[in-house]
Amino acid sequence: MEHRNYRDREGGGRPRYHSQPKADKMEMIFGLRPILEALHAGKTLEKVYLLKGTKHSISQEITDLAKAAGTPVSLVPNEKLDQLTRKNHQGAVAFLSAISYSPLDEIVASLFEKGKDPLLLILDRITDVRNFGAIARNAECMGVDAIVVPTRGAAQINADALKTSAGALNLIPVCREANLKDTLHYLKNSGIRVVACTEKADDTLTDTTVDLTGPIAVMMGSEEDGISPEYLKRADVRVKIPMAGQIQSLNVSVASGIILYEALRQRQQA
Q1: Transmembrane region positions (predicted)?
Q2: N or C end of the chain: smaller count of CB under 10 Å?
Q3: DSSP-H helix ranges across the chain
Q4: For residue 270, what pLDDT is reported?
């Protein structure tokens, strides 16, 4: 059987158009002025949807403020906005985030100042909400200091994510980064090794040469196609989880638990 990247076979890949958050799953704001006021007030927004083709000063201000805050903005047709809400949205809908995101550079600096070796978890395009919640639960239990996600192509952190995480998302910092390539460069320059968990690796997790002590950032790939090639080639270490069955593929949340446990085990014995 072909050896493939860790993915969620049950989930069927990335969520499709209809899988966007609904009003009963995440608090919604609609209308240009309310969204603008929320941004000015420093509210953390998960995502902003604006009517495509609109040329309005308020729309532009919303776009500028959202991008400055690291909030993804999608330009969509009116039909999409009508799917999100039946109310008078005025061409603008946004969802409040269930958590507040943390600055990665501040977390890294704080960890080093405390004399601690950072253990970070980078999630490349994990889009399934329940997978994300389960991964966050694994991360908190295994002592991960922060989870790093991309601004675009990441699971929406809504009520389902919080529930699946068993409260872990209220305990572990989540950092939303606009460009993971730049983030990997920053981490490596900070003395943090990037460890990619991928079936494309030659080394297995049980090899004595695989060192998960010291400052590291474990990187997990998407449910559909694993870690992006451009990120994979920037990893300092590539490692795969040994398997004896025929399926040769693990749910990404299970895979994250296995490698994070091994990191914890090695660090406790170091």
Answers
A1: none
A2: N
A3: 32-40, 57-68, 78-84, 104-113, 129-141, 159-164, 180-189, 229-232, 252-269
A4: 82
Q: Using CA atoms, how far apart are residues 87 and 89, in angstroms rounded to an integer?
A: 6
Strand partners, 239: 197, 203
* Three-state DSSP state, 199: coil
Higher pLDDT, 55 or 164: 164
In angstroms and rounded to an integer, the radius of gyration of the C-alpha atoms of the chain is 19
Percentage of the residues of the chain whose pLDDT score is greater than 90: 77
The Cα 252–Cα 241 span in angstroms is 11
Helix axes 104-113, 180-189, angle to 10 degrees: 20
CATH 3.30.70.20 fits 104-269, yes or no: no
Contact assessment for residue 39 and residue 73, using Cβ atoms and an 8 Å cutoff: no
C-alpha 235: how far from chain center: 17
Q: Any idea where the domains of the chain sit in the sequence? A: 27-96, 104-269
Q: What is the CATH number of domain 27-96?
A: 3.30.1330.30
- C-alpha distances out from residue 72 to 4, 65, 79, 216, Å: 30, 11, 19, 27
Tokens of 10: 């049950």
pLDDT given for residue 25 in this prediction = 58
> Which two structure tokens, joined as six digits, stand for 73?
């903005």
Which tens digits make up the pLDDT trace of 50-74? 999 888 899 999 999 999 988 999 9
pLDDT over threshold 80, residue 137: yes
Average pLDDT, the chain: 89
- Distance, CA of 32 to CA of 36 (rounded, Å): 6
Record the pTM. Answer: 0.84
